Amino acid sequence: GDSVTQMEGPVTLSEEAFLTINCTYTATGYPSLFWYVQYPGEGLQLLLKATKADDKGSNKGFEATYRKETTSFHLEKGSVQVSDSAVYFCALSDLTGNNRKLIWGLGTSLAVNP
Amino acid sequence: DAGVIQSPRHEVTEMGQEVTLRCKPISGHDYLFWYRQTMMRGLELLIYFNNNVPIDDSGMPEDRFSAKMPNASFSTLKIQPSEPRDSAVYFCASSLGGFFLSYTFGSGTRLTVV
């Protein structure tokens, strides 16, 4: 079945460092891909999305490009801030039949130190 | 809109007791999802509804778990009897038409079974 694999955390960076969180997937068909962010004590929020190959999703300085050839959707940010400390989830849409499910990675915790 | 509202935020109960978690989806959303989040297993979809009808409950772990959606503005997830291994954060999410861009999570209920 479809699956999402994220790099294990925790990731610890200093403020203004470059961030990469790797995400790879296996899927039949052509799913949409998503990154969600979960701040402490809160629910998940959509950070960015891409719906087809070579699409680049971006939001709040974060970017991710849908790479069909490498089945990847890595999250990047050029200069992280303390406020980016959170857990980041990669997900893909399960489009088999009438499903409306999202398939989730396990999440990657990011801590940014001042 | 107040978003997806879950109650209670925290619940501590003794093993063997019945626990009921509640969710109010965003008005107009016709899909409702219940998730469980643990460190070991990540985010697991338990069940989802479309127009108040359960569509897929394959993620419900055991018969001790049941979910209902008596109307478009209210859903419950019940665990009876509860066990310590049920301790987790339970999230409710809703969406319009099952479209992932409208997927909105509540803040979750942290359940501790002692």
Give a verbal description of the structure:
The complex is a heterodimer of chains A (114) and B (114). Chain A has 114 residues and is mainly β. Chain A has strands at 3-6, 11-14, 19-21, 23-26, 33-38, 44-50, 56-59, 62-65, 75-77, 86-94, 101-104, 108-113. In chain A, 37% of the residues are buried. The mean pLDDT of chain A is 92. Chain B has no helices and eleven strands. In chain B, strands 2, 4, 5, 6, 9, 10 and 11 form a seven-stranded mixed beta sheet that branches. By secondary structure, chain B is mainly β. The mean pLDDT of chain B is 93. Classes of the chains: A mainly beta (114), B mainly beta (114). Chain A binds chain B through residues 32, 34, 41-46, 49, 89, 93, 98-102, 104-107, and chain B through 4, 31, 42-43, 45, 48, 50, 55-56, 91, 93, 95, 98, 100-101, 103, 105-108.
Q: Count the strands of chain A?
A: 12
Unreliable spans of chain B: none
Q: What best-fitting shape of chain A do the alpha-carbon axes yield?
A: globular
Q: If you compute it from the alpha carbons, what radius of gyration of chain B comes out, rounded to the nearest whole angstrom?
A: 13 Å
Helix and strand sequence of chain B:
EEEEEEEEEEE
Q: Supply Rg of chain A.
A: 14 Å
Q: Return the structural class of chain A.
A: mainly beta
Write the layout of secondary structure elements.
The complex is a heterodimer of chains A (114) and B (114).
Chain A lengths: L2 E4 L4 E4 L4 E3 L1 E4 L6 E6 L5 E7 L5 E4 L2 E4 L9 E3 L8 E9 L6 E4 L3 E6 L1
Parallel strand pairs in A: 2-12
Antiparallel strand pairs in A: 1-4, 3-9, 5-6, 5-10, 7-8, 8-9, 10-11, 10-12
Chain B lengths: L4 E3 L2 E4 L5 E6 L6 E8 L3 E9 L2 E4 L8 E7 L2 E6 L8 E8 L8 E2 L3 E5 L1
Parallel strand pairs in B: 2-11
Antiparallel strand pairs in B: 1-3, 3-8, 4-5, 4-9, 5-6, 7-8, 9-10, 9-11
